[in-house]
Write a structure and sequence with these properties.
There is one protein chain. The chain has helices spanning 17-27, 49-65, 76-90, 100-110, 122-127, 129-137, 151-156, 163-173, 195-202, 211-225, 248-253, and strands spanning 8-12, 33-37, 70-73, 96-98, 115-120, 142-147, 183-186, 207-208, 240-243. The chain is an alpha/beta fold. Helix 2 (49-65) packs across helix 3 (76-90), helix 4 (100-110) crosses helix 6 (129-137) and helix 8 packs across helix 9 (195-202).
Length: 254
């Protein structure tokens, strides 16, 4: 099999990474995807950095063994805590992409001198990964962050688009930590699944960014630059999905 025909490996702690996989499928229809959802250890946002690194290394080796040509860390918490470990594990065998850096670059280019909110898991927000990544590129962006730990489990269980979920989301979005934001980063790959609810609550005054599309465009450009992009129809074999523990929510989402 040619190198370009090999699959793109994608992993997350659960169903959230499927939002990134779907965006990659839209922007790169010629690619084959191999997805690993670590549902046994969901949610990553409540785990220690050491545990997350252990999970990420194990999954990366799984993707290497199955001949992936690249790996996308489709989890903000794993991107914050384990990118270096994944890169070390992958070595020169395949490029590694996380979901934080492309979004930080987008914010720095488009929102210089303005106020941007970030919501995510406890692990992601505590790491200050977005604050640091954006500041490295443009210190004029004001970043306001808030941990929203109830959202990912709620979404993973399919409990959204109802009165209770909207009340939970509204409670977070109206928190004083996010006051004055002009744009919002959904800093967990589960959150695009509630993007419509978020937009309805925030109204037209706040731009809700589309992280999966931003990440997919970045991955496409990088694969093309490295001569790894597969043009035309997807190679034979189709996409494959693996789980560390089968969940009803994943079966419904996939």
């Amino acid at each position: 099999m040619s190198r370009t025909a090999r699959p793109i490996g994608i992993f997350d702690s659960g169903i959230g990474g499927l939002t990134v996989a779907a965006a990659i499928r839209r922007h790169m229809p010629g690619e084959r995807l191999l997805y690993f959802g670590d549902t046994e250890h969901f949610p990553y946002g409540e785990k220690s950095p050491e545990a997350i690194k252990h999970y990420a290394i194990r999954i990366t080796n799984f993707l290497i063994d199955r001949g992936c040509k690249a790996v996308v860390i489709a989890c903000n918490t794993a991107s914050a805590q384990a990118t270096a470990e994944v890169e070390l594990t992958a070595g020169d065998r395949m490029p590694v992409f996380n979901v934080v850096d492309p979004i930080a670059e987008h914010v720095a280019k488009r929102w210089s001198g303005r106020t941007v909110g970030v919501i995510g898991t406890k692990g992601t927000i505590a790491s200050r990964v977005y604050v640091k990544a954006i500041a490295r590129l443009d210190k004029r962006v004001k970043v306001r962050s808030l941990a929203t730990p109830l959202l990912a489990p709620m979404i993973e269980e399919g409990f959204y688009n109802n009165t209770i979920s909207k009340a939970v989301i509204r409670g977070y979005l109206e928190h004083r930590n996010l006051a004055g934001m002009e744009a919002l980063v959904l800093g967990c790959t589960h959150y695009p699944l509630i993007r419509r609810e978020v937009e309805d609550i925030l109204g037209d005054g706040v731009k809700v960014l589309d992280p999966p599309a931003i990440v997919a465009k970045h991955v496409r450009a990088e694969l093309d630059a490295r001569g790894l992009l597969h043009a035309g129809d997807a190679p034979a074999g189709g996409d494959h999905f693996f789980l560390s523990d089968l969940s009803d929510s994943f079966a419904k989402s996939a």
